[in-house]
Amino acid sequence: MNKELKNEVPKHVAIIMDGNGRWAKKRHLPRIAGHKKGMEIIKNITKAANRLGIKVLTVYAFSTENWQRSQEEVSYLMKLPIIFFNSFVPELIKENVRVNIMGYVNQLPNDTQKAISAAIQQTSRCDGMILNIALNYGGHDELVTAFKLMATDLQKGKLTIDQIDQNLVSDYLMTHELKPYDNPELMIRTSGEQRISNFLLWQLAYSEFMFTDTYWPDFTAEEFYELIHAYQKRDRRFGKIKDE
């Protein structure tokens, strides 16, 4: 890791961790084996991101659409946060990383909710990088929820139509707690698929996208560094024209 990479990293990186099932199938293993391996990769990349000086790492762990998978797979995915936090929270505290959960947590099983609450509480004093986990999250649902909250505040007189602008909308989104780093500069998706799958629809408006063919269970810190370095070479204009 060179000084250039360390000094010019994006402050918020979001990752769509894709390919666990295909990784397992390729090895004639059940899909849950891919999820188990993928959990370990989250730990590796979290530590790598923290050591690079990234402020927020958002990982897409479970979408609102994932409930449509088999009951066996969903049941295992609901257990993963319990296993993950039980083993990783001490390391997160050591690394000074705080846990934040983004999504409809109240719809998760009670044991999963308890594990999440405990991890948030136990890392609450950490003031380094935020590990933001999107769990039972969907971009469309997030926007609908935000619009309903705004409409309610309008009805109660807490808000006027003239006050509604881009900054205000962002205050009603699930990422508002991450400010000033609520919008990712870089979004990475593994496994070769090139779509955002209902992920951070508002927040990714001006993010740089990078896609890798690597399945998530094979994703390494070294490849992560390479993608960050590639990001540094991008010319981010935000609709403007830079002087030649």
TrEMBL record:
EC number: 2.5.1.-
Catalytic-site annotation from UniProt: 18, 66 (proton acceptor)
Name used for this protein in its record: Isoprenyl transferase
Entry's cofactor comment: Binds 2 magnesium ions per subunit.
Keyword terms of this UniProt record: Magnesium, Metal-binding, Transferase
Coiled coil: none
SUPFAM superfamilies reported for this sequence: Undecaprenyl diphosphate synthase
Lineage: Bacteria, Bacillati, Bacillota, Bacilli, Lactobacillales
GO terms classed as biological process: polyprenol biosynthetic process
